[in-house]
User: What shape does this take?
Amino acid sequence: MHELSIAESIVEAVQARTHEDQVRVVRVRIGKLAAVVPDALEFCFELAACGTPLEGARLEIAERPGRAHCRSCDQEFALPDLVLLCSCGSADLEILAGRELQVASVEVA
Amino acid sequence: MCSTCGCGTDDARVEHEHAPPDHDHGHDEHERTHTVELEQAVLARNDHLAQHNRDWLASQDIAAYNLMSSPGAGKTPLLERTVAACARQVSVIEGDQETVFDADRIRAAGARAVQVNTGAGCHLDAGMVHRALDKLQPEPGGVVFIENVGNLVCPALFDLGELAKVVIISVTEGDDKPLKYPHMFAAADLVVLNKTDLLPYVDFDTRRLVADARRLNPGVTVLPLSARTGEGLDAWLGWLGSSASVGFRPDVRTATPLT
Ligand SMILES: Nc1nc2c(ncn2[C@@H]2O[C@H](COP(=O)(O)OP(=O)(O)OP(=O)(O)O)[C@@H](O)[C@H]2O)c(=O)[nH]1
Ligand SMILES: [Mg+2]
Ligand SMILES: [Zn+2]
Ligand SMILES: [Zn+2]
Assistant: This one.
């Protein structure tokens, strides 16, 4: 359950910026290839926010699909999982998106 | 070791706290929210501490390896053998939820060890390793092994400041594990296949394991060995030596393809 650590890191990162201000909304970007389960993260966020100025804040998760670029044939395509294979047969891929694990912004009272 | 910013020690968080907010938004009058842009990595703090670990280890000419596997794949037995056989001074950070069993075993094998108990936590993070290094006081020029908590999922996400991540899989776990635990195998700089002495007793297709690991991690080296018999240990020691001397870069694979 690393989602709890992730949730604690979110609370910590936000509080470092907003200090004692009441936080109402936290917006995060989570890539589909980032090994984080949104439902589990939501659950853990509620726990992690308990007793902090983030208590009761809504967590808005924007999921980001995976995308890759093939260095062999130069095409760009959707990457549903971590299996690195282009339709041209090459495994020489660069993951362009889908590994995001970012705090985008917060709404502060 | 972090005199520059002091982070990583238990109370170091204090230094990262800022002065009380000096802005006033009229909290009492009405509920008006405003947006604060953060645009930062969730694990920024961990990554910052990991970079400190990495810098400090490099300044001491210490090669550090993060060993990850499911519980019971044989991390500790491999380390016991490595302590005895490695040319460089070995010290070990042992991560487990509870007990000091593994650190005791490493000390009995003749190396310095520090146990980190994570309690409910299912992985080590850079801060824990930072504190453990402070306690461990590893020899300059030596090797530090970090035995992560037995878990094929969570440890993959956390940079510890290591030179390389080593994933250990044993033949009794089944050859289908790479695709079931893709994040771990995608993160590996080296895959060790342990317990090869048991291959005659289990249905384990080594080719499939290698092929699947490379679907996630093209070109990754897979080293078969037995921590029990010592077979394959030379290749492991060789990999350690070469990775430490070249300053391992994940994009440079050692060319020992397993067939
Ligand atoms: N036959 C055989 N058994 C092995 C080998 N390596 C380890 N074992 C056995 O596997 C079992 C599990 O080993 P552990 O020391 O618990 O492995 P670990 O990865 O350190 O486990 P945790 O620290 O609990 O995550 C022990 O009974 C070892 O003796 C090997 O190469 N061959
Ligand atoms: Mg162990
Ligand atoms: Zn976990
Ligand atoms: Zn292609």
Notes: Chain B has one domain: 25-244. Residues B 69, 71-77, 96, 102, 150, 194-195, 197-198, 226-228 surround guanosine-5'-triphosphate (ligand 1) (CB under 6 Å).
